[in-house]
Amino acid sequence: MDRRTWAQDVLRCHLCETPGPPMYCDICHTHLCKACVGEHLSDESKDHKVVTFKKRGFPPECSQHSKKLCELFCEQCNTPICVHCVSSGEHLGHKQVEILKTLQSKKDVLQRDLDDLEKLIYPKYQEIVSNIPVQKAELHKNSKKLTTALDKHGEDLHREIDIAIKKLKSDVDEMESKHLVVLDKQENDLKCSIAEIEQSIADLKKSLNSNDISLVSTYQSRVAEFRIMPPKLTVSLPRFIPQIINKEQIYQQIGSLSALSIKTKEHDYAMDSPGAESSPPGRPLINVPRIITDINTNYGESNRLRGVSCLSDDEVWTCGEDNMMRLYNIHSKLVKSIKTKSRNRPDDISVTQSGELVYTDPSDRTVNIVKNTQIQTVIRLRGWVPLFVCSTSSGDLLVVMITYDKRQTKVMRLSGSTEKQTIQYNDKGQPLYSSDFSDQIIYPKHISENNNLDICVADFKAGAVVVVNQAGKLRFIYTGPPSISKKSLKPVGITTDSQSRILTADRNNDFIHILDQDGQFLRYIDNCDLKLPYGLCVDTRDNLFVPERDTGKVKKIQYV
Q1: Sheet strands (E) in 212-265
Q2: How does DSSP assign 269-322, residue by residue?
Q3: pLDDT for res 135
Q4: Distance between CA atoms of residues 504 and 482, nearest Å
Q5: Is 182 within 8 Å of 233 (Cβ atoms)?
Q6: What pLDDT is attached to residue 216?
Q7: Distance CA 267, CA 498 (A)
Q8: What phi and psi, each to the nearest 5 degrees, are found at residue 161?
């Protein structure tokens, strides 16, 4: 048989071409049947190592010494070695083990990986991907349900508008009818008077043309009676006074869609390896919080520090009472400064998921974003003043704002420059947030989004942390732990960490309250000598940054 066609046929003995040879020479790389093994070994011009076909290629040839087989494995060098390698001293002092044991241990690892892939991971991936069509179907079903609900709500609103317009039209018809009655009466009265005047004129002409003394003598003048003109009818015709169409009120009347949230949680599908210890579900609070470092800034009593937002674990944006926003690193070095577009001071700052700085400008009524050193206006409000802001996991902005007269406060969700949601009242129609109508100053209301998508507002004047869910429904109001005797809570800053804990700075007591995501008090941070904390943020490692308003320091605190 032509050996060039072997690859297209079954394996055959190199010498006699018997199919399915059970033996193999590792050095000569030839297949052998048992009958031909002796003949192959008889060639003493070179070394031979005949093994069963399943053990072929083991041990391997040494890469450094030709035709020498590796019987050992150097663990430090992670490579097979032969006796010449050992005698050369190159692997002196290295741990050397039998290559068969190494092969077996590595195959055990491969087998475990194969078992994990075949029995655990691959089925899980199949399960996950098989659920995607279900999610798509549910998405389509939900969208159809929302569209139907919107259509129905639209029809209801149109019906109410039609009823209102019909009522106004009916009022117009009724007023016209009443007016016509009056005009008809006046017209009839005037026609009667005109007929009488015409008769008087005819009588006078007849008398003038007659010499009948008796006719002339009986004439009685009615000129004085007719000189009294009938009363002039003054009617104020009705006018239609349309209200200015306020789109914001229309949107509020229509309602809103809750924000779409798409979050990837890697741990949802994570699986422990067999025999591995499971890690704790969250990072617990440490017994004694400690200050990691103090960041000294240029702020102080003459330019008080009013806000912080983490750019990274090592850098934090700050703002105060001037028109500059400053980026400091944890070594107190000023990295960058940006002046506001309007030259007014910013009221609050936040950093987006992509690292862009956002700030509010109450004097200019704008929310702005800094992109590549260029400041772009996200939105300019009418009738409302933006105060505090935070960036959300979905890329939206949550903005706390008040009316010009300070009578109303609300939270607006912005997607780009589009208003997606307004949060202002509870289910009973009562305001969720305090107003500053009777006050000379505007009190802070810092805002933060939690990992569970709750919206948390630190309402200083109300002395409360107000938490609503993603749809804007009130979940709870925290006013301090009831069992601990302290001054009343006055929150001036709020943030949340990776475990959905809520942290708020308390200006009345100069420490930090830590709550769980359901508003249960966990502990204070009261051992770090805080002085007038104002604003909070956490980095990716759950380190807390606390700015001190009058000292201008930003304290980085470890609490987990």
Answers
A1: none
A2: G--PPTTPPPPPSSPPPPSS-EEEEEEE-S-BTTB---EEEESSSSEEEEE-SS
A3: 87
A4: 16
A5: yes
A6: 80
A7: 13
A8: -65, -45
In the chain, the amino acid numbered 10 is V
Residues of the chain with pLDDT under 50: 1-8, 267-280
In DSSP terms, 449 is beta-bridged to: 455
The whole-angstrom separation of Cα 36 and Cα 40 is: 6
Q: Which two tokens stand for residue 120?
A: 């655990």
CA distance linking residue 318 with residue 263, whole number of Å: 28
- Confirm if 398 and 421 have CB atoms less than 8 A apart: no
Pairing outcome for strands 72-74 and 96-98? antiparallel
At 284, list the tokens. Answer: 């617990």
Q: What is the DSSP letter of 259?
A: P
Angle at 194 between CA 190 and CA 196, to 5 degrees: 120
Which H/E stretch holds residue 375?
Answer: strand 374-380
- In 3D space, the residue among 438, 434, 408, 404 whose CA is nearest the CA of residue 422 turns out to be 408
What's the burial of 220, exposed, middle or buried (CB within 10 Å: 0-12/13-18/19+)?
exposed
The answer to whether 449 and 398 are in contact (CB under 8 A) is yes
Q: Shortest CA distance to 457 belongs to which of 437, 436, 472, 442?
A: 472
Length of the chain (residues): 560
What's the token pair of residue 271? 């699986």
Tokens read off for 333 = 């070095």
* SS3 of residue 310 by DSSP: strand
Q: Among 477, 465, 383, which Cα is nearest to 422's?
A: 383
Residues 490, 508: contact at Cβ < 8 Å? yes
Task: Give residues with Cβ within 8 angstroms of 435, minimum separation 6.
Answer: 402, 406, 407, 408, 409
141 closest CA partner among 151, 133, 131: 133
Q: What is the pLDDT of residues 305-349, one digit of tens each?
A: 999 999 999 999 999 999 999 999 999 999 999 999 999 999 999
* Contact partners, residue 379, CB within 8 Å, separation at least 6: 366, 367, 414, 417
User: Which strands, in side-by-side order, build the sheet including 502-506?
Assistant: 491-496, 502-506, 511-515, 521-525
Distance CA 441, CA 393 (A): 32
β-pairing, 357-361 vs 79-81, is unpaired
Cα distance between residue 457 and residue 468, in whole Å: 9
How far apart are the C-alpha atoms of 211 and 456, rounded to whole Å? 108
In sequence order, which residues have a C-beta less than 8 Å from that of residue 362 and are 6 or more positions away?
Answer: 344, 347, 385, 386, 387
Is residue 1 within 8 Å of residue 17, measured between CB atoms? yes
Q: How far is CA 88 from CA 75, 99, 255, in A?
A: 17, 18, 83
- How far apart CA 349 and CA 368 sit, in angstroms, is 10
Could you identify the residue written with the tokens 């009345």? 508
- Give the Cα separation of 534 and 514 in Å (integer): 16
pTM score above 0.85: no
Q: What is the pLDDT of residues 483-501, one digit of tens each?
A: 665 789 999 999 999 999 9
Give, as one character, the DSSP assignment of residue 53.
G
